């Protein structure tokens, strides 16, 4: 069900990104895959940027990738563990970088994510920081893995709203596309 | 009770305690697959440490250059445990070490302590 990278690169959702893909991956996002791709990303970015920028982009990558690992609606069992399927693409653009994640979601997740992304995008920079701290304090009291905090962190760190879209796949299933822009120039 | 001794990996920090010195130290990067599960032994260790007679002070040293959002939730939990012990009269000191050239690591440290009532210091270091 997961789309191959070639097909994703042609998708309407990202065809306005002008830049080179420096990292693309579509498939099973295991913790090992996240760590390995993260290493590649860090080494690539270190050549051109300060630690502060490297960490910012790395942090957004981790939140997107772990989001797929835990919450993709397409899960694969491997040695008793469950891993999500999805795609991550990172582009080097004239302004900086764009990170894209794509994964399958359910009807319920669709409703949740649409509300969540619209809410986060409606907040200004100061509000988003405050919202993040409040949310963190609140979820510290729950057993959740941190659902929702990752999205706030992506917007907080990038300093830009997220671009998102939902593509219907079949009854009750959608592809969730998420884009985050980091301006470095 | 035993000391805690967890070796570091690329995505989990080294965690070592020294009961004699009254210290627990975190060193490295933290984005485990399941942060709640990873940090549970740390909460248990701290609870046990303060239950023991004579253990009245604890210094917590963080040398963490990156942590993900689910880890930040766990650090909040840990700080709350420390805050509760502080209220009971235990002496708690938390040192957050950050790289001088990484403003995010200072910022994330500051934010962690904003709402928690424990003594903490933000200490710049050359490189973690």
How would you describe the overall organization of this protein?
The complex is a heterodimer of chains A (185) and B (128). In chain A, strands 1, 2, 3, 4, 5 and 6 form a 6-stranded antiparallel beta sheet that branches. The mean pLDDT of chain A is 91. Chain A has 185 residues and is α+β, with helices and mostly antiparallel strands. In chain A, β5 and β6 form a beta hairpin. Chain A has helices at residues 5-9, 31-46, 51-71, 107-121, 125-139, 149-158; strands at residues 19-29, 75-78, 81-93, 96-106, 163-170, 173-183. Chain A has a single domain (5-183), classed as Heat Shock Protein 90 (2-Layer Sandwich). In chain A, α2 packs antiparallel against α3 (51-71), α3 runs antiparallel to α6 and α5 runs antiparallel to α6. Chain B starts with a strand and ends with a strand. Chain B contains 3 helices and 6 strands. The longest helix of chain B is centred in the middle third of the chain and has 19 residues, at 69-87. Chain B has one domain: Transcription Regulator spoIIAA. Chain B is α/β, with parallel strands linked by helices. Chain B has a 6-stranded mixed beta sheet with strand order 1-2-3-4-5-6, with helices on one face. Chain B is 37% helix and 33% strand. Chain B has helices at residues 35-51, 69-87, 103-113; strands at 5-6, 14-18, 23-30, 57-67, 91-99, 119-125. Chain B is globular and about 40 Å long. In chain B, α1 packs parallel to α2. The model of chain B has no long low-confidence stretch (mean pLDDT 91). The chains are: A alpha+beta (185), B alpha/beta (128). The A-B interface holds A 31, 34-35, 39, 50-52, 55-56, 58-59, 62-63, 66, 69, 133, 136-137, 139-140, 143-146, 149-150, 153, 157 and B 10-11, 31-36, 65-66, 68-70, 72-73, 76-77, 80, 99, 101-105, 111, 114-115.
């Amino acid at each position: 069900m997961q789309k191959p990278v070639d097909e994703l690169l042609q998708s309407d959702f990202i065809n306005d990104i002008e830049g080179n893909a420096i990292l693309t991956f579509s498939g099973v996002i295991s913790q090992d895959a996240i760590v390995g791709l993260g290493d590649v990303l860090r080494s690539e970015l270190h050549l051109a940027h300060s630690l502060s920028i490297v960490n910012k982009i790395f942090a957004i990558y981790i939140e997107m990738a772990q989001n797929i690992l835990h919450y993709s609606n397409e899960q694969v069992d491997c040695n008793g563990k469950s891993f999500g399927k999805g795609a991550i693409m990172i582009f080097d653009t004239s302004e900086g970088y764009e990170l894209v994640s794509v994964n399958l979601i359910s009807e319920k997740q669709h409703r949740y994510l649409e509300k969540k992304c619209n809410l986060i995008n409606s907040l200004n920079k100061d509000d988003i920081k405050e919202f993040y701290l409040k949310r963190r304090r609140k979820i510290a009291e729950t057993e959740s893995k941190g659902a929702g905090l990752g999205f706030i962190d992506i917007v907080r760190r990038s300093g830009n709203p997220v671009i998102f879209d939902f593509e219907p796949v079949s009854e009750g299933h959608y592809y969730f596309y998420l884009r985050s822009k980091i301006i470095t120039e | 009770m035993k000391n805690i001794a967890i070796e570091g990996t690329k995505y989990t920090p080294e965690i070592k305690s020294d009961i004699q010195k009254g210290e627990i130290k975190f060193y490295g990067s933290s984005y485990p697959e399941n942060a709640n599960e990873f940090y549970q032994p740390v909460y248990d260790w701290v609870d046990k440490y303060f239950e023991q007679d004579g253990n009245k002070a604890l210094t917590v040293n963080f040398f963490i250059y990156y942590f993900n959002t689910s880890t930040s939730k766990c650090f909040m939990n840990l700080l709350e445990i420390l805050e509760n012990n502080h209220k009971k009269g235990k002496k708690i000191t938390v040192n957050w070490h950050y790289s001088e050239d990484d403003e995010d690591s200072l910022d994330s440290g500051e934010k962690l302590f904003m709402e928690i009532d424990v003594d903490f210091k933000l200490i710049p270091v050359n490189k973690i």
